[in-house]
Amino acid sequence: MATRTASKTPRPVYRCSECGWETGKWVGRCGECQAWGSVAEAAKPALRAEATPVTSRAVPIGQVAVEDAAFRSSGVGELDRVLGGGLVPGAAILLAGEPGVGKSTLLLEVAASTARTPQRVLYVTGEESASQVRLRADRTQGVHDELYLAAETDLGAVLTHIEQTRPTLLVVDSIQTIGAAGIEGVPGGVTQVKEVAAALIRVAKTRNITTVIVGHVTKDGSIAGPRVLEHLVDVVLHFEGDRNSRFRMVRAHKNRFGPVDEVGCFELGNAGILGVTDPTGLFVEQHHGTVPGTCVAVTLEGRRPLLAEVQALVSQATLDKPRRAVAGLDTSRVAMVLAVLEKHCGLQLPRQDVFVSTVGGARLHEPASDLALAAALVSSYVTQAPPAATVAIGEIGLAGELRRVRELPQRIAEAARLGFERAVVPCEPGRRPGRRTVDGLEVIEAPTVMSALHALGFTKNG
């Protein structure tokens, strides 16, 4: 009697494209990174890899030409600052930001500036019609014969446009609207975004085309789509800004060609977007005389020092539970500074409403603004204005001490350049508290927040 042998077929393996988590059955949500729609059947491994023809011969690294990767100005100085010098041929740049922040306006300005050099530019829009982009270009003086415009949502059509126009700069707005035929999922899905990005980057590298890709962001501010998208590109930029303010910032979160601690400042208006080389005036209010409840901080955005005014209002509470309202600063940081002032400076704040804000939509998350915040709070509490033309720089510790901040000489030099006369700063380790003059600016060193408030003219009795 013949025995029947059951042939064992290997069970399929499902793998998450985000983190690599594997499971024996398909699930809609990854059990490791909790990403939706990222689990798919993994391809069966090949038995062996065979040698294939090479695209280019390997040469000693000293013989590789660096001229092909030279920076080329984008035409927007503040963007060049963030990129480390400008656009690099063959580079893939991902620009992400919230809806309506001005991503398309900025890239249309870059495209128009590049076309004027003159170099050919292909602007692919998947979110707007060609006529809508033309209207914006008319408003921002961005119409040029070397700027080509295509409204496409199919990857194959986009690649055909690249073949026909052969651009130097390619702008894709946005990658979530481009779909690839034959790939599972809808445009904007994990699989589609990964395939479209890989195809565009492959063309950028082989044809030496600078490619700028616009990406959407999620509710928490992270870039929508697979995490591998950020690994594929060379540069990741985040475009930030408050809708109630015209001020915008571009930050580099990844840059293979330059630093990642630079910030570009822009002002969005009816005529387009303009670079702001000295944005301090946007964050400091011009008062007629000294005003209680205000103090100027010097914060660092990237490697650029910016002066920003902190305003505070302390008033008697009318409800059983005092109010705490914060705009432009870290709420937990404000609560900590209030606790230090109560514990170490004798302020009675449990029955006081406290309102804290910044001027011009500035966002101060750096601990170096703690001392300016404390000075503004005390100034409002005692109804006494701090000395005119004074800045306060320093991080406050829980024991009431002032801690050092990075790049203090650069901050002091910026305050002196803008005409300030006095700066209260932390005392350097090993140095006795005292006064010195730097570039015509009087620098007062204080070891504790109490001594700093005394240097600003505040006493325990008000």
Notes on the protein architecture:
There is one protein chain. This protein is of the alpha/beta class. It has 3 domains: 33 residues; 212 residues, P-loop containing nucleotide triphosphate hydrolases (Rossmann fold); 174 residues, Ribosomal Protein S5, domain 2 (2-Layer Sandwich). It is 24% helix and 25% strand. The strands form 5 sheets. Strands 6-5-7-8-4-9-10-11-12 form a 9-stranded mixed β-sheet, sandwiched between helices. The protein has a 4-stranded mixed β-sheet with strand order 13-14-16-15. The chain has a 4-stranded mixed β-sheet with strand order 17-20-22-21. Strand 18 and strand 19 form a beta hairpin. Helix 7 packs across helix 8. The N and C termini lie far apart (106 Å). The model has no long low-confidence stretch (mean pLDDT 87).
